[in-house]
Amino acid sequence: MSFLAVSVAAFVASCPMALAATEGQVSHAGVAAGAAYQEAWYQENGLLDLPAAAAAYRAIAAAPTTEPALAAKALLRLGACYRALGDAAAASQAELEARRRFPDEIAKFPTHRLEVLYKQLDEAFNVADAGTGTQAIVRFLSDLDVSVVHSICEACYAQAAEKRAGDPLASIPALRKAIAISTYLRQIERSAFAAKEIGDLYAAAGHDDEAIAAYRKVQEDFPDVRNACAWAQLGIAEVQRLRGRLAEAVEAYRGVEADYPGQLAQVIWAHLWMGDAFRVAGKTADAQAAWRRV
């Protein structure tokens, strides 16, 4: 039997189940519960034995003499273990039990509380491909205090930035969550440029079709943010140019000025790059005509 199993067994044995605990028993049980929690945490994070850690957390939370704050923490860690083991249903059940049994204690643990909310937000996004995906996300966010929603939004953008540094494409799921939340918060321009960034990430990785789809989604979802839409149109043109599709590229370049005439920076770049595309194709007269419009 492992040291953790002995510690947890000793803790459970120390909890009076049939008789009312004396003050000394309660104190002893509190010390034992704290030690058992530390051992469970080590089992989870040090030894990576998640099933054993989950069993220990469950025993701690179930013991009647465990202090509410510790029982709440144990249930949250139990949820984390279940989620890491791939059992989302059991994880949600443990987290909801923590919120139901110990609402006052959970409110004192903002980090743990946000951790639970992030996981539940992930579950809302898991139905994003269904017709009710957006409604599920909005319904989830509308149940939260707006300050909490702002905190989650900033955390998602920060997570996307962190992931982008090491694996750019891996940042896209976090970025999509951030976009949904900032759109809910009516940070429309921020959402539009973040959505355009998804196109940039796909384009940089050579995922041309995904890049074009992402750029077009900017124009569909945020038509009033013309600055971002013009950059997205320019992105479409660049993807087409770089994969050697001159006709499609020229059409997209011309679309920048036709659809977004007031966005001067993007219009100038469109003429410059369109001229370069003509030059590479050996169409010198067309290239010079495009450059003269700058």
Indicate the radius of gyration in whole angstroms.
27 Å
Tally of individual helices: 16
Number of domains: 3
Estimate what percentage of residues fall within beta strands: under 5%
| Mean pLDDT across residues | 82
Shape by Cα distribution: elongated
- CATH fold type of the largest domain: Serine Threonine Protein Phosphatase 5, Tetratricopeptide repeat
Structural class: mainly alpha
Uncertain parts: 1-28
The run of helices and strands is HHHHHHHHHHHHHHHH
User: What is the highest CATH level, the class of the largest domain?
Assistant: Mainly Alpha
CATH architecture of the largest domain: Alpha Horseshoe
Model description:
With 294 residues, the chain is mostly helical. Helix content is 79%, strand content 0%. The protein has 16 helices and no strands.
Highlighted features:
294 residues, 3 domains, 79% helix, disordered N terminus, Serine Threonine Protein Phosphatase 5, Tetratricopeptide repeat, elongated, 16 helices, mainly alpha
Write the layout of secondary structure elements.
Layout: H1 3-14, H2 23-45, H3 50-62, H4 68-84, H5 88-101, H6 103-107, H7 110-125, H8 133-142, H9 146-166, H10 172-184, H11 188-204, H12 208-221, H13 226-242, H14 246-259, H15 264-280, H16 284-292
